[in-house]
């Protein structure tokens, strides 16, 4: 009897342990997946950064070669730095400029429309006045 009870206990323990193990494994897998996602995002970011850096380096190398060829090192360096700065700025600015231009164009369009409307109104009024005058003249003649 005692042996059977002990066996039961052991079985229960085993089952519990297995369950705990399963839960732990699931949690670990979830964690891993989360980590993978985060890592992927991080990697993407890093890749972008690396690409940028590589571009910079390439530009630098090019400029270095230029410097080697031309002995006007300082000039070239200054120009390159300015150009790089300009490039970076332009990237930022381009969006702004495009937006600005769009706004300006729209404004211009609206202004044009308004002007056209005004012109049409003026012409209409003039026409009306002309017609009125002619009618009045006719009446006067008849009288």
Largest sheet: none
**Alpha carbon gyration radius:** 41 Å
Output the number of helix runs. Answer: 2
How many beta strands in the DSSP annotation?
Answer: 0
Q: What series of H and E elements makes up the topology?
A: HH
Shape: elongated
Low-confidence runs: none
Strand proportion:
under 5%
* Average pLDDT number: 73
- Helical content (DSSP H or I, runs of 4+): over 70%
Structural category = mainly alpha
What is the rounded distance between the termini?
140 Å
Task: Please describe the structure with a list of short key phrases separated by commas or semicolons.
mainly alpha, 2 helices, 143 residues
Explain this structure to me?
The chain has helices spanning 2-69, 73-142. It is an all-alpha fold and 143 residues long. Helix 1 crosses helix 2 (73-142). The N and C termini lie far apart (140 Å).
How is this structure best summarized?
By secondary structure, this protein is an all-alpha fold. The protein contains 2 helices and no strands.
């Amino acid at each position: 009897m005692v042996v059977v009870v002990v066996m039961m206990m052991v079985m229960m323990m085993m089952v519990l342990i297995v369950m705990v193990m399963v839960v732990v494994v699931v949690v670990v897998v979830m964690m891993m997946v989360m980590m993978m996602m985060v890592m992927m995002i991080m990697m993407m970011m890093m890749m972008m950064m690396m690409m940028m850096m590589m571009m910079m380096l390439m530009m630098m190398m090019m400029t270095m070669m230029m410097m080697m060829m031309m002995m006007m090192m300082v000039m070239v360096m200054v120009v390159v730095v300015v150009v790089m700065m300009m490039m970076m700025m332009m990237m930022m600015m381009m969006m702004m400029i495009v937006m600005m231009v769009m706004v300006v164009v729209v404004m211009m369009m609206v202004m044009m429309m308004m002007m056209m409307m005004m012109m049409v109104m003026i012409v209409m009024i003039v026409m009306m006045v002309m017609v009125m005058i002619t009618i009045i003249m006719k009446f006067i003649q008849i009288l």
